[in-house]
Amino acid sequence: MKILVVEDEKKIAAFVRRGLDEAGFDARVCHDGNEGYRLAREHEWDAVVLDIMLPGRDGLSILKQLRDKKISVPVILLTARGELDERIEGLDLGADDYLTKPFFVEELVARLHAITRRANPDQRSLLEVGPLRIDLLARGVQVGDRTLELTAREFTLLEYLARSPGRVYTRTQILEHVWHYDFDPSTNIVDVYIRRLRQKLEDERDCIETVRGVGYRLRRD
Amino acid sequence: MGRRWGFRVKLALISTVISGIVLIAVCSAFWVFMRHLYLDRTDRELADVASHLVIAGHGSLAGLHLAESPVAFYGEELHGLATALEDDGRGLVERSDNWPDDLTASDLPRSAKPVPAGHGGGQHVEYTDLHHDPHAGPPRVEPTYATTERNARRWRLAALRQGGRTLHLALDLRGQQAVLDHIGHVLLLTVVLALMISAAGGWFLAGRALRPVRRLTEAATEITAADLDRRLDPCGADREFARLITVFNGMLERLERSFGQAVRFSADASHELKTPLTILQGEVEAALQAAPAGGEIQRVLASQLEEIQRLKRLVRQLLLLSHADSGSLRPGHEAVDLSALFRETCEDIRALSPDLRVDLDLAPDVTVPGDGVLLRQVLLNLTSNSVRHNEPGGWVRCRLARSGDRAVVSVANSGPRIPSGDRERIFDRFFRVADSRQGEGVGLGLSLALEIARAHGGDLELVDSTDEGTEFRLVLPG
């Protein structure tokens, strides 16, 4: 999937590109607003990641012009300042989602998956990881032929781990994705939910691995 | 008086009192003067009558016979004039018909005037010149006067003594008193009317004088952080108020500037703080994925991510507070499903503290207009506080109800009560209850929750904190 990243801060652009490439996206980075607008308009993209504060032309006006020209490519806004107003304005202008800086690349990946799935409903609506079959649309999980009864939080957590099997997710990342970083990082709520998930997985509990002192990951096989 | 009465009432009252004092003084003086004038005139007329009677008696009282003396020419004012003659030692020897019975010789004034020396025998007043020269007018007499009251009638008495004989004149003062009473009534009525007019005038003038102040007050009330660029128009105001308005406008300008700086600061600080944090977090995240799984390096990086998370949280809270301070914390109006949000949050209480008894009573489908992210933060703050400040085997009670057009959230928990001295301060920034068991957070949560509630047009309050439990209530307009 081709993603355009318009972000003037070179270091941010660099790790975003690296993270997206690792997650299997084909990311192209550009550091200037005018250039970003030109690229967004002239090429086909599966999604555009737009920083709001940009030299040349700011993210919101790029978004507005794209929508004015009936270009409906999914857009995720990156906002740093004035969280509230920009978020509301961005969504009003037709952004599909927003991420507040500082954000985890892993979170950006999850959001990109979500909005590209919304754009193409038949694509990747089923995740199969080892014994798990996760239906992203119906938000249901099957282990073998058994259906798991999961709460909303438990499902979000399992789905997040299943995005990149084998990848280590720290407690902080999980906390931010599932609980939206309102929690203090010293809380043990992530461990509590992992324990619950494991209980529900019964014999397959080992598919969630603990990486001691770091976090959790889902086994690839 | 002071605050209870208000400037306007005070001004009206003061103007009334002052004009009242002046009016009463003037009117009293006028009335006293009128009375004096009337009495004076009466006395002169009495003296006139006396001198004419002396003329009628051929220059002395000795030759006077009242019955023969015509009194018709005395005029209407002297209508009711009674006359009597008294001889030393013999009492009243002659009385006119209308002489009041209750006036006896002992009531009448005695002439105390010594007869001037050189007028023969000390008893005789010489009128011979006048008697021989009728063109010189009536002889000069100086009677002694007195006022007496008998059976509710006032009499002005005049006594003229000559050679062992005294002429008594008594004039009924009724008519004169009636005139004076009438004048008194008119004056009293005038004073009352004038006082009323003065009070009304004072009230009106004070109102007029205060109009610019009222305008200023209204304008100041209307000006909020959102429209600090408003100014008052000093045109048309009096000099004193024009100056006040200018000063007020100057103050607004300084306020606007400093608010502008605060807003700019929070915007700039957002960017300046968040950009390095974003880079730091992104690179640590990338390094963590690249490091050998479960290794020492990965552990260190994970711990760093946790600290970055702490910083992020602090920065976010501070920025939101600075938004709140500058009046730019303006949540949107998306319909937030408070029921769903609260249910999720409550689920976390059970997960975090399985030993707590969690009692839920959440009305379904309660939505409020606002910002879901911010409202979730308020709910999370309340529930996580209820867990953190609880006791082993304690309870948490969460309620959500609709009350009229408002949503009411209540979170109560067992645990040590908040000391009464701390209750005022728990919403203060960086305040933490002394026995806080865990060093979690920096004490911004509740103050931020309060700001968020207020930004939504609602309120957050500590309802009660006893040994039974502590209850917080969040009210949001629906």
- Structural class of the secondary elements of chain A? alpha/beta
Order of strands, main sheet of chain B, comes to 2-1-5-4-3
Structural class of chain B: alpha+beta
Q: Would you count the extended β strands of chain A for me?
A: 12
SSE sequence of chain A, one letter per element: EHEHEHEHEHEEEEHEHHEE
Query: Which regions of chain B contain 5 or more consecutive residues with pLDDT less than 50?
Result: 115-133
What is the multimeric organization of the chains shown? heterodimer
* Average pLDDT figure of chain A: 87
Helix-strand topology string of chain B: HEEHEEEHHHEHEEHEEHHEE
Range of helix content of chain A: 40-55%
Percentage of residues in DSSP E strands of chain A: 15-25%
Count every helix of chain A, treating DSSP H or I runs of 4 or more residues as helices.
Answer: 8
Q: Provide mean pLDDT of chain B, rounded.
A: 82
Please give the alpha-carbon distance between the first and last residues of chain A. Answer: 24 Å
- Estimated helix fraction of chain B: 40-55%
Largest sheet of chain A: 5 strands, parallel
